[in-house]
Amino acid sequence: MEVFLRNLPSDLSQEALEAQLTPFMRELRIVDFICLKPRRKTFGHIAFLHKADAERFLAVHGEQEVPSAGHKPRFQAHLHLMGTEVFCKPSNRKIQEFTLRALQYSAEQRGGNGTQERDQQPQFQLDIDGFSCGYCSFNEDQLVFTPEVAWSQKGVFTLKGRNFKLTTQDGYLLRIPTSSIIALVHYDDGLLTFILSEVPYFFLEHNKAPLTMALPILSLGKSTITHFRLPALSGEHATIIGQCLVYQFRAPALDVIRCMMSLKESDLSVFYHDLTPKQALRSSARGLHSDLQTLLDQLSEWTRKGDLPFGILYQLQALVYNAYLHPTTVQILGSKLCAISQNRRQRGLAPISADAVRTLLNTVHWALPFDNPEDFQPDPLLATLRLDREAKMDFTSQKSVSADLSSDHVLIHRVSVSPTRITFHGPEREPQNRVIRKFPGHHDYFIRVQFCDERGSDLFFNPKHDYEQIFQRFRTVLTLGIQIAGRTYTFLGFSHSSLRSHSVWFSSPFIDGDGSLQTSSSIIKALGNFSGITSPARCAARIGQAFTETPFTLPVQNVVVENIEDITSSDKSRVFSDGIGTISLEVVERIWKGIPQKKGTPTCFQVRLGGAKGMLSLDSRLKGSVIRIRPSMVKFSTDDMRDLGICNMASEPYPLVLNRQIVKILEDIGVPDDWFFSLQNARLRQLQLITSSADKTATFLKDAKIADSIGLHKLFRWCYWMDLDYREDPFLRSIVEAMILRELRLLKHKSRIPVPQGMTLYGIIDETGYLKADEVFITFDMISGLYAAPPGPGPVLVTRSPALYDGDIQVARNVIPPPDHPLAKHKNCIIFSQQGVRDLPSQLSGGDLDGDLYHVIWDPIVAKVHTSPPANYGRVMPHDIGRAVTTKDMAYFFVEFMKTDCVGIIATRHMILADQEPEGTHASGCKQLAELHSTAVDYSKTGVPVDMAKIPGTGRFRPDFMAPGPLAQVYSKSKITLTELSSHAAYDEDGPSHILYYKSDRILGKLYRAIDEKKIWHERIDTGPSPDEDSFWARFVSYLTSRHSLSQPDSCTVDEALRLRSAYNDAIMAVMNDFSEHPTRPISELEVVTGIIITKTGVHSRRQRDRASKLKDEFDRVSSWITDLIRQGGRDLCLACLCLPAKDASALWQRVNC
């Protein structure tokens, strides 16, 4: 039942209305209700799940008719909200379907987890008399606060959701996420101090903004904008905002005490300490900004004189820019390092390692009450570095972990630009690309610049906020560059993938190996001729080819490069060979010799050659060393044709795993539910059987390639042979649990269902003309029986991701060529026909052959379904500015892309609408979204954004399979727990809209609810014997010593093992910090070893997925380095290292010898 409300305040939002009504509902013990209110209207509705609740509400708060002398009846209101009379009466409309389903779902979920009512939060509200921003430091042994900027505005400070929020009288809003709070410090004088790890978020109410800021919004008709996001609260604030992460608020003393009492059950670190501001303690009369400028001048001077290597100067600037140390402290530290460096040069010793200075970024922490003041002084900091270096330099023979690089990777510094500040990170390993490879020995003149939010994640866009001030800041950085230790790094370019991850390359001028001055302009000019391109997006995409990762290269000076024509349809309207050329066997064999043996003998390669990009496939009919490229591959002209860069290759097939988009289309074209359930249940059985024996666990880890650089699966195989239960060791147990949890969550939350009779393969064209229209040839390695044999002749389903249009899945006929046919030489690919009216790849969500992967299914249950006609979108012409493109044009396009990229929004709305529409993906609204998605995908190359007004809205209701799952948390370094996700807490009006979920009756909802991850976790996975780490390793070592007749290592060998472990711990700790998105919360060693970043909800952002792939490479590198050192020491050292997991190695040996 619904209740109609009138005379509501027009500015009251839907969520704020719900917050206002919650106390009234709580008094009436009403839980199941939803508020519905249009923007800027004075009416709304309350939807109740139970009619009795609605009647009880109306009995107390319903309007009452009163006698009137006139003919028009008068009513008396019995509900007052924000000082306004609100009239309530039964609604004359029927409750909406998805509103009712959302109420029912909410009630079911609440009944399932025992939550009886909406979450309540601590009653935290303070009237603020003023606040300031500054930093903490030690005056002798006393921690003091030094303010740099102060504001006298009064305001209200509250806790809403996961944020503290200050709203000032003049319209400014300051938001502090609780996750960024290092410590809360309070005292009797009414001062409340927040020591933070990141800068707060700043906003200004739209109706209190200056006209210059509000006018563009008014002219564009953006009536939904409520706040402007700001890079700082003032110009003075902007100069110190990045280095001052302490905010102090002044309030009545008794109110502060009351609020602190309300937080006693929270997990915040609260200190009682006197932090009265000490203005006199500033190191200079002009404050921190002046000290910072002095330091930057000094760093520039050291660079000019060559007193210290750039790598060390970069780390010194990072210590200040990341707000770890005060500029004056770093300047003193730098001066002492200069003296040490000069002394070492005079004595002929090795230079100071930048890695040693970098360790300060991982060890220095924010100053807190009761810390040791000496920990923040230059001499003790320097002593820590020197002790660290001297303890390890001889042992590692000056061999740095970071220097142990293969030729396909380089070390590159990374700089993050957020809405408020710039922070320094790295150096980190980056795959080689064409530009970096041209300048060996000059890699520190290039940096990766990441534009992101304060926490390192993608900038979150709230439709209620205007971000123009933030984007203007980003434009300024892209235009003026970044100053680092006397060098000016300016915009260079970006690849297609880095554009989507909001990352660009910057470079600083340098003299190359030939004595030539290299600037960003000269580097771009040497890549090729781009003068004829008049579209910023297209020009950036063409230049971006040079920044594509090319781990392998092949010199082509002795290779004949020929140009051949594209294969087209008879009317020339379709290019069948779009993006693909050919390569002779002689060249392919040269590639095989230059790639790692584990890559096998692939026959298709994704390449970059001069201005050409795409695939090269083997044509065994070609004689000699020949590469043939087609016009569709050539994107710009260049004389630089020295190397063939290989981005990827078809070295192995990829098992097909479904996703939610493909599942939905398959359902809509008639695939029965039973087929999906049979596959999902088979996968569930596999996951549940993994822990049934160590042998099955070993197979699982081997197939998943977890820590394969050290052969981790072999350890589990040994446990199986020795009849040892690996679950007695907490870390080994957690590795398995983390892997199963990831697979379980992908299965439930992403419908990542493996298809045994399916595969994902690179697509190439039949160069011979053997295949007829709509025919394909599917071929791949079975990898020693790991995969089923390729399909025989017959129908197959072919698609590619992303698939949103109902015709993005098509049926083709698989044909097997004779054994001696040229097509039979191929493997790990799907070969498409060159015949017919339209090429098949273009029918599959606009695919081509420049490196696209295609999904194939030959299961007879689904291969014969009736598919829908494919989409046929018109070509979008690139945005043309009518002149040559400049660097500034491309930089500005980068920012515009950040502003208007809506691929994710469209895909999400398509998923919601496809679930809600009776016709599913066949519905016109879904087809419209699919076309808009195609335009959005091409935006990076055309510069033509999607008109956001054309995107159909889906409201606040979403199907249950899009809801977050239980929270996963890692504690005690490796222990994983699953806890129930709490229901919606007090809504934060500045956060994302309050989403409501309903039970989906489509296949995605059914599959989702069929998996109870908490039940599976607790009953089948998180079970086993109690941890007994020492006993486990004692029995393991006992077996090995008796098998190989080994004796206890001597003390020298044990000491060497301890030093090795220390080196390993340092390297792993560096990785844990480098790959964390939070400066004070490194990821766990468990995440490093498994290569899985464990998120609370199991859903990874695009950036987390990218970082996870690099994380695995980083662990492989560190583990290979340390195992090489262990092996060099022989059996005794190996045994000594094996004994170290025990808390007491000598006690372990006593247990071994018993």
From TrEMBL:
An MF annotation (GO) of this entry: RNA-directed RNA polymerase activity
This protein's record includes keyword Membrane: no
Enzyme Commission no: 2.7.7.48
Principal EC category: transferase
Alphabetical UniProt keywords: Nucleotidyltransferase, RNA-binding, RNA-directed RNA polymerase, Transferase
Any one annotated GO CC term: nuclear RNA-directed RNA polymerase complex
Catalytic activity: RNA(n) + a ribonucleoside 5'-triphosphate = RNA(n+1) + diphosphate
Annotated ranges, domain RDRP core: 417-1011
CDD domains: RRM_SF
InterPro entries, alphabetized: PH_RdRP, RDRP, RDRP_core
Any single biological process term in GO: siRNA processing
Domain RdRP-like PH: 126-265
Keyword Transferase applies: yes
Family stated for the protein in its record: Belongs to the RdRP family.
Name of protein: RNA-dependent RNA polymerase
Species this chain originates from: Aspergillus terreus
